[in-house]
Structures are given as C-alpha cells and as structure tokens.
Amino acid sequence: MPKTRREFLRSGAGLTMGVMGMAVAAHSSERPTGKLPQPAPAGQEATTPAAAAPDERPNVQVPKMKFGGVEIGRLVLGCNPINGTSHFNATYNGLMREWFTGERACATMHRAVSYGINAFQHSNGGHCPQYWKQFQADGGQMHLIAGDQSQDDPVAAVKDLKPHAFHRQGEVVDVAFRTGKMDDVREWCKRVRDTGTMVGVATHKPEVIALIEEQGWDIDYFCGCVYNRTRTEDEWRKVLNGELMEMTREIYVQSDPPRMYKVMRQTPKPCFAFKILAAGRVAPDQVEQAFRNAFSSIKPIDGVWVGMFPKDSDQIRQNAEIVHRILTAV
C-alpha cells in the first residue's frame, strides 16, 4: 500500500473495468416479497400495480459478494426513502414519510429480498428502527449493515440491533475529519471491534479513506458517497469559481464520482458506494449507465447502496434487473 495519503490518492491508473461475470445467486430461504399497497383516489379501493404484484420468487436475482463470512447481494437496500430523507427538499421528504407506512416499508423489504437484495442499510434515526423491528416481527430476514450517527454508547447499540456490520456515519466522520478529531472516530471503531461485530467507516470524502489506509486502522470496510456533498461553503466556492448554489448541502457535481471510485479500488477492503444516482438527480434514461459506471469502477468484492421509493414505479424490480444484467454479462 502507498505510504502517504498523497501517494494513495494519486496512485493507480484511470478507471478500469472490473470482473463482472458473477453467477446468479442461489435460492434464498428468506420470506418472499409482499405487495406494495398504493394510495387510491377518494372513493376507490387501494390497488397494487401489476409490476409490484407477484408474490412468487422472481427469476432475476442480484449476484452476491462475500462480506464477513456471509453472502449478500451487491445491491443493498438503502434506508433514506424509508426514513423520509430525500436529499432534495422538505416537501419531498414529507411525501416519502407520508407514503412509507410501516406496512409499505415492510413490503418493500420483503420484495427486495425476493430479488436477492438480502442486506439493508440501517440508520438509527427516523422511522428506520421502528420499521426494521416491524419487518423482523413479520418474519423478515435481511443482513443488517447499520450506521451510527449518535453520541450514545455504540456497544449498547450493537447489543440492541445485533447488526452484521456497524459503521460510523458519514456526516459525523466528515465533521471529525474537518475539525481534526479523527481519533474520536478511531476510538469508536475500537469499541465496536471489541464486540466482535464487523466495523466500518462511512464518508463523503476520498481523503478520509486515504487517511485511514495510511494510518492502518483496524476496520473491515468502507462506505463512500460518490458525491462529496459535505464540503464547506469556502470549499464550494473554490469548486464553483467563487459562486455558491442554493442548498449547499445538496450540490452534486459530475466530476466527484471518479475520485471516490479511485480510492475504493485502491483499498483491499470491501467498499459500498452510495448515492450513485445522485439522490435521484440522474435522469431516468441515464440510470442504467450510472449503475454501469459504478460497477465498472469498483472492485468485484464491493457493492452499492441504493434507496428505493416504489410509489409510482417498481424500482426494486427495475434496479435488480439492471444490476443482474450488468453483473452477469459475458
């Protein structure tokens, strides 16, 4: 491994194609999909769209990756829509919170499992803890990859959630990086390591991964937002030639993803890329290309998190089919 952060960030050639010919996942024993009940006009009964209706296990299954002794789909179900976090605006947040009742959240998880999406990226905020427990009570089984943004005892959280893997949340990590308090993050990781649970670090900044690799932290995985949305206003002015856009926390520039993908390729640890669709900003006709860019830019041992909001279309099936098509291509 490169000895300095600068060498780490500069090393490696340009984007290279990973080996994608993984076999279709074997039959899963998890519960089959539930239906996704849809809101109905006044005076009419609720209906389920045909695309979301089948209860049988689909033929398409998301290919798997090894992760800490288990096999999980390389497409992981993200929690932001379920939590009502759109990364757009308050109006869209409210729409997500209104639509995602406990029933619909559980049905979304069950349906994801039916397509081989057998891991869930959990957050300890919003409705996520409540809906996760409801899913488990409903017989649901997924591997839990949990993020912690609280200041509470991580050991207590591990005992409560029993996650397969537990990481420090990216917003918290990025603040620590900016303020010179990464030792606090490292200490958090040590406490989780002592529980025997897989431990990781999430970030929006490629420099964080480079620093951790340079210092040789004892962690198992990274989670990287491919858009660096936690820049300060001064940093954004440098990027935008002195200008500032509205909502500086939600700026997505197209030159960011290659930088994050580069450090993900350079670390031997498994990585999860997230916000590969720029929190829904990628145009519908460019979604498959964004998936292709992601999987061709990361390692075969890496995966992606994608939040899904199946209110108006069956995004679970659509995304599973795209990932299956990319990763099983000869």
Uncertain regions: pLDDT < 50 for 5+ in a row? 12-34, 39-54
Class derived from helix and strand content: alpha/beta
**Overall radius of gyration:** 19 Å
What would the average pLDDT be, to the nearest integer? Answer: 85
Can you tell me the CATH topology? TIM Barrel
What can you tell me about this protein's structure?
The protein has helices at residues 5-10, 80-83, 90-99, 102-114, 128-137, 154-161, 170-179, 182-193, 206-215, 233-239, 256-266, 287-297, 315-327, and strands at residues 64-67, 70-73, 75-78, 119-123, 143-148, 165-168, 198-203, 221-225, 271-274, 303-307. By secondary structure, the chain is of the alpha/beta class. The chain has one domain (70-327): NADP-dependent oxidoreductase domain (TIM Barrel). It has an eight-stranded parallel beta sheet. The chain is globular. Mean pLDDT is 85; it is low at 12-34 and 39-54.
Name the features.
single chain; 330 residues; alpha/beta; TIM Barrel; 8-stranded parallel sheet; two-stranded antiparallel sheet; 13 helices; 10 strands
Write the layout of secondary structure elements.
Blueprint: H1 5-10, E1 64-67, E2 70-73, E3 75-78, H2 80-83, H3 90-99, H4 102-114, E4 119-123, H5 128-137, E5 143-148, H6 154-161, E6 165-168, H7 170-179, H8 182-193, E7 198-203, H9 206-215, E8 221-225, H10 233-239, H11 256-266, E9 271-274, H12 287-297, E10 303-307, H13 315-327
Parallel strand pairs: 3-10, 4-5, 5-6, 6-7, 7-8, 8-9, 9-10
Antiparallel strand pairs: 1-2
